[in-house]
């Protein structure tokens, strides 16, 4: 492989990696959006005041989903039950946990039509932010290619060819983001 091809392969690998990361971030953000069904990732943002510091919920107990509209948190330390229950209630998720010994039951209320529409708007905002991130990655990749052409590492023809490949990668990634958004919106609106 010539030096220019190796340089381009490095740029393309970096662009692909960053675009793939953008998709993963979007999926994590979507996982936090409630769809009316219980999913353990719903409690991921909850931080519990434990032992003098804020800790992720997963570090004080085990989260389970025994039924479609119920989450349970089995708290390991009996002294942490009240703090965990308060953290879930205060997390701004609209949940009302109930302690039952060392287990906290968290019923998931059904979503109203208005709330579902709000959630689809939030999902759209997340997807648009991901599209912007992908376009920024494309710009960075193209800037690197232009610099390589300016430094004489690649020809103008190679610049056009490589730019077209990065554009195809961008188009494919944005299509994947749009498909993921469409799937999430259907999931949210499904009653």
TrEMBL record:
GO cellular component, one term: cytosol
Domain Ribosome recycling factor: 26-189
Pfam families for this protein: RRF
Cellular localization per UniProt: Cytoplasm
Protein biosynthesis listed as a keyword: yes
Record key words, sorted: Cytoplasm, Protein biosynthesis
Keyword Protein biosynthesis set for record: yes
GO molecular function annotation: ribosomal large subunit binding
InterPro entries assigned: Ribosome_recyc_fac, Ribosome_recyc_fac_dom, RRF_sf
GO annotation, biological process: cytoplasmic translational termination
CDD domains according to UniProt: RRF
PANTHER family: MITOCHONDRIAL RIBOSOME RECYCLING FACTOR PSEUDO 1, RIBOSOME RECYCLING FACTOR
Stored NCBIfam families: frr
HAMAP family on file: RRF
Record family assignment: Belongs to the RRF family.
General function of this protein: Responsible for the release of ribosomes from messenger RNA at the termination of protein biosynthesis. May increase the efficiency of translation by recycling ribosomes from one round of translation to another.
Protein name (database record): Ribosome-recycling factor
Organism field: Novispirillum itersonii
Lineage per the UniProt record: Bacteria, Pseudomonadati, Pseudomonadota, Alphaproteobacteria, Rhodospirillales
Protein's gene: frr
């Amino acid at each position: 492989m010539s030096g220019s091809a190796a340089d381009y392969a490095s740029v393309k690998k970096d662009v692909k990696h960053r675009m793939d990361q953008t998709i993963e971030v979007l999926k994590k953000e979507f996982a936090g959006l409630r769809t009316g069904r219980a999913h353990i990732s719903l409690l991921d943002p909850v931080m519990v005041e434990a032992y003098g510091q804020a800790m992720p919920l997963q570090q004080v107990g085990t989260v389970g989903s025994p039924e479609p509209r119920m989450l349970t948190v089995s708290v390991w330390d009996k002294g942490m039950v009240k703090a965990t229950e308060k953290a879930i209630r205060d997390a701004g998720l609209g949940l009302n946990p109930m302690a039952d010994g060392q287990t906290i039951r968290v019923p998931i209320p059904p979503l109203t039509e208005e709330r579902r529409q709000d959630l689809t708007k939030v999902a759209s905002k997340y997807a648009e932010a991901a599209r912007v991130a992908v376009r920024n990655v494309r710009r960075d990749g193209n800037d690197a290619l232009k610099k390589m052409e300016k430094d004489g590492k690649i020809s103008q023809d190679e610049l056009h060819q490589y730019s077209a490949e990065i554009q195809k990668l961008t188009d494919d990634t944005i299509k994947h983001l749009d498909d993921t958004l469409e799937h999430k919106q259907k999931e949210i609106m499904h009653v």
